[in-house]
């Protein structure tokens, strides 16, 4: 009995320590890249720009939530190497699905946010953000000042009836499918319909979607 309890405790501690947080956001131009962070050795050493600050705020929120590992597609993939880029694109769904949490930054959604802002946000129009919504088990939404969307303090926004209702109405997918999504939940026609409502800016983004 003691051994079983100890094993369970160890598993919880290891899972918590290595739990990583994924970033979901809209690319806005000169985002900090892998090479930029590699040169500076840390996101904290990057020069001040709005987009560098966005990345730092993501890391700060990850730390505030008690996690030690943060991942952003802007700077955690060496896009200069095709093999790494291609492998990353095909692995992205799994990475989001296995994350401890995914933080969604809603560019352009002012604070205080209002019902409907998420539905009308730029984030809802981009190709790659659809799987970043569906894949994770735990998702948190933030407005442009890194405040919880609608002031919702639910530990997992997928458990927020108001936010899930807004998302379900927006993408016309049942709330239950969003909360506990599996790729087998949607048929080919439905996947094509969802893809047709999203915009991809460059070739790899189309592959990502």
UniProtKB/TrEMBL annotation:
Domain called Heterokaryon incompatibility: residue spans: 20-110
The species this protein was found in: Pisolithus tinctorius Marx 270
Lineage of the species this protein comes from: Eukaryota, Fungi, Dikarya, Basidiomycota, Agaricomycotina
One Pfam match: HET
InterPro entries for the chain: HET (IPR010730)
Protein origin, superkingdom: Eukaryota
Sequence intervals crossing the membrane: none
Protein name as catalogued: Heterokaryon incompatibility domain-containing protein
């Amino acid at each position: 009995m003691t051994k079983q309890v100890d094993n369970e405790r160890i598993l919880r501690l290891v899972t918590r320590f290595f739990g990583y947080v994924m970033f979901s956001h809209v690319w806005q131009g000169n985002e900090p890249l892998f090479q930029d962070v590699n040169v500076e050795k840390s996101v904290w050493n990057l020069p001040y720009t709005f987009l560098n600050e966005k990345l730092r705020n993501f890391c700060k929120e990850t730390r505030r939530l008690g996690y030690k590992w943060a991942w952003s597609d802007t700077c955690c993939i060496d896009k200069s190497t095709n093999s790494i880029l291609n492998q990353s694109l095909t692995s992205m769904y799994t990475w989001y699905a296995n994350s401890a949490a995914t933080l969604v930054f809603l560019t352009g959604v002012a604070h205080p946010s209002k019902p409907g802002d998420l539905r009308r946000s730029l984030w809802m129009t981009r190709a790659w953000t659809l799987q970043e919504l569906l894949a994770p088990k735990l998702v948190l939404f933030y407005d442009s000042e890194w405040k919880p969307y609608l002031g919702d303090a639910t530990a997992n926004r997928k458990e927020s009836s108001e936010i899930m209702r807004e998302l379900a109405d927006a993408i016309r997918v049942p709330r239950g499918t969003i909360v506990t999504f599996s790729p087998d939940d949607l048929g080919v026609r439905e996947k094509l319909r969802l893809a047709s409502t999203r915009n991809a800016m460059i070739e790899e983004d189309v592959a990502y979607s």
